[in-house]
Design goal:
- The mean pLDDT is 97.
- The strands form four sheets. The chain has a seven-stranded mixed β-sheet with strand order 2-10-9-8-5-3-4, with helices on both faces. A three-stranded antiparallel β-sheet has the order 11-12-14, with helices on one face.
- With 359 residues, it is α/β, with parallel strands linked by helices.
- It has nine helices and 14 strands.
- Helix content is 34%, strand content 16%.
- A hairpin with a 4-residue loop joins strand 6 and strand 7.
- The protein has two domains: 241 residues, 3-Layer(aba) Sandwich (Aspartate Aminotransferase, domain 2); 102 residues, Aspartate Aminotransferase, domain 1, CATH 3.90.1150.10.
């Protein structure tokens, strides 16, 4: 029996997608073999790739002057690719908003190739809030400004898009496809797949055309957006199964009503959990209310000695992967698109029962 999976990533996938992949695993499209066993350059797989791109363009309303790239290396690979691709047009300085551990990783990697100016940080309160834009100290002539709209570990989410003069780069790994976005406000949007797109092993990048010629001249070929764009994301053999599954997720999202419907579901799911936390003396959220993520909800128990029993009983009740990130402890429920509302109802019911018995 399927259980409710609250893992932060690799995360839950829609059941209809898994069922379709199961049906097609041994004999895809009547070819007598799996999609994993055909050439990525075959007409059949090229059709899969083209449809996945078009469906993603439709879902996010991606303008024609943006390339949609399917890349390897996950979002972490893009921490390196971004400075390599954007530090070649003169400026080798980048502005960053330091909002948590994933922003920190991106900052650390960018410093290998140029100068980093941290325009704002929420480190003073353990990354429990989103820095207001009026507190920023931006630099002149920056090659780009990078931020992480949703921090998976800390559970904070920006409720605004930064307004900047340089290209805006966003790591949307954990909130892409969860609400409509105005792509034209960004120079680059990138995301690891294993949260709201598909399985691990592939990343998506939306890159505005005018940024494809800003790479450093000695950029590694495998990190070049221009090389990937010119080759249709097939300069080398891509992770075909992850690409195929991501395409199935895009089709599922369209059938559900698109990102508008996902935004409504995200609000409904997260509100239910936050309302319970705010009404409890036993559980609490460490994140400021105005900065709370709809995708990742960290919470703590009043007595941390009960953490282990809570997790053991939750798993026995079919509620999986609620342990918080090792760096912060506590609990965390990730409520990505594929996590149904019924899962959150079951979680809240379990938490209420646990509190009644242990509080």
């Amino acid at each position: 029996m399927r259980k409710y999976n609250f893992c932060a990533g690799p995360a839950a996938l829609p059941e209809p997608v898994l069922q379709q992949a199961q049906l097609e695993l041994m004999d895809w499209r009547g070819l007598g073999c799996s999609v994993m066993e055909v050439s990525h350059r075959s007409p059949e797989f090229v059709e899969v790739a083209e449809r996945a791109e078009q469906d993603l363009r439709d879902l996010l309303k991606v303008p024609d002057n943006y390339k949609v790239l399917f890349l390897q290396g996950g979002a972490t690979g893009q921490f390196s690719a971004i400075p390599w691709n954007l530090f070649g047009a003169g400026s080798k300085q980048a502005d960053f908003i330091h909002s948590g551990q994933w922003a920190a990783k991106a900052i650390k990697e960018a410093r290998r190739y140029g100068d980093v100016n941290v325009v704002a940080t929420s480190e003073d309160r353990n990354f429990s809030y989103v820095p207001a834009q009026n507190s920023w100290q931006q630099s002149e002539g920056a090659a780009y400004l990078h931020y992480t709209p949703n921090e998976t570990i800390g559970g904070i989410e920006f409720d605004y898009v930064p307004e900047v003069d340089c290209p805006l780069v966003a790591d949307m790994s954990s909130n892409i496809l969860s609400c409509p976005i105005d792509v034209e406000k960004f120079g680059v949007i990138y995301a690891g797949a294993q949260k709201n797109i598909g399985p691990s092993g592939i990343a998506v990048a939306l890159v505005r055309d005018d940024l494809l010629d800003r790479a450093m001249k000695d950029i590694p070929r495998s990190l070049s957006w221009k090389v990937a764009a010119d080759a249709g994301s097939m300069d080398n053999t891509p992770p075909t199964f992850a690409w195929y599954l991501s395409g199935l997720v895009f089709q599922w999202l369209k059938a559900q009503g698109g990102v508008e419907a996902m935004a409504q579901q995200a609000a409904k799911k997260s509100s239910l959990l936050y309302e319970f936390l705010d009404g409890s003396d036993f559980f609490s959220s460490p994140v400021e209310k105005s900065s709370r993520s709809r995708m990742n909800v960290p919470f703590v128990l009043a007595d941390e000695r009960l953490d282990k029993p809570f997790l053991q009983e939750a798993e026995a009740a079919g509620l999986l992967s609620l342990k918080g990130h090792r760096s912060v402890g506590g609990m965390r429920a990730s409520l990505y698109n594929a996590v149904p509302f019924e899962a959150v109802k079951a979680l809240v019911a379990f938490m209420a029962d646990f509190e009644a018995r242990k509080g």
